[in-house]
């Protein structure tokens, strides 16, 4: 498929967490609102556009945000509500489009290639935007272009409650005047490095010799050069609820030792929760499976607010296991599965945790990545003799 054949719309819910809170409580509308922990050592998980005018942004220490805007309203996050609205929007999109990718809890890529012959991609996107807002009360923006890169950048430029189409052939001209930090994948550190090289706009980046970018930035330099010219052939990856991360263990000797089974469950849950975070994903559904000595197999699952945090997932898997293990028969196998996976950072569920808690998770994952997950486990995950 050539670029002229591709029509990709990027939909992004505007200030999603804040918007949901405003639906729940209208007095928050048009106010500087901060979602996160209330303590001085907590962090800002999300903030309203009114709060952003004071220089506040997500991941900022709450103490600093309060200094920038003393009148800001601080509320704790409600991941259950956010997950509910995310699924509602997902259902609306799934009912209307042939193929879509759920890139995170609040953004979607929709492949409308081929629909321009029958309906018009721009008109379809506008009507879908209106339908989402009408049925959920949430504001959403979209950018329509020939690839995912262009559509995402365009969406970010017209938020909130905006819409725009970048015609094929105008990608490079559209990107040219924007700052290099507007390119997806260019973080603060990389942007600073480019600025120090005298590369401040995407136009300058596109004109910079690719060989020199390769020398200075490695493989990233080649990819940045492509992106600065509006080139992106990344496909829209169809979203399917059956995507999962799972593990199970069959015992050499069937057991009825509950402490042992709990230890195995903790160990397995920790392992696949770490795998979630490695893949930068969140799960919205947890399932536990038991197989008894007579080969009867039972399972239970529950839909949960999106998360990848150990302490949340361990509690859920333990509760499911306790509901399952009622027959008091010898157990042959235990399994844990996470489904309803979406892209996202596990920190979004840590609204009530401090910077220290987030740092602890990052430190734990760093050790596991370097030395292997088996070298760092909770005490409860240590499997005792049966």
Describe, in plain words, how this protein is organized in 3D.
This protein has 386 residues and is α+β, with helices and mostly antiparallel strands. The protein folds into three domains: 1-169, Alpha-Beta Plaits (2-Layer Sandwich); 173-228, Orthogonal Bundle (DNA polymerase, domain 1), CATH 1.10.150; 244-381, Dna Ligase, domain 1 (2-Layer Sandwich), CATH 3.30.1490. The chain is built from 14 helices and 13 strands. Helix 4 packs antiparallel against helix 5, helix 10 (210-217) packs across helix 11 (219-228) and helix 12 runs antiparallel to helix 13 (310-324).
Question: What layout of secondary structure does this protein have?
Answer:
Elements: E1 8-13, H1 16-24, E2 33-36, E3 44-47, H2 49-52, H3 62-68, E4 73-75, H4 79-96, E5 100-104, E6 107-111, H5 121-136, E7 140-145, H6 148-158, E8 163-165, H7 171-175, H8 188-196, H9 202-207, H10 210-217, H11 219-228, E9 244-255, H12 258-278, E10 281-292, E11 297-307, H13 310-324, E12 331-339, E13 342-343, H14 355-371
Parallel strand pairs: 2-4, 7-8
Antiparallel strand pairs: 1-6, 1-7, 2-3, 5-6, 9-12, 10-11, 10-12, 10-13
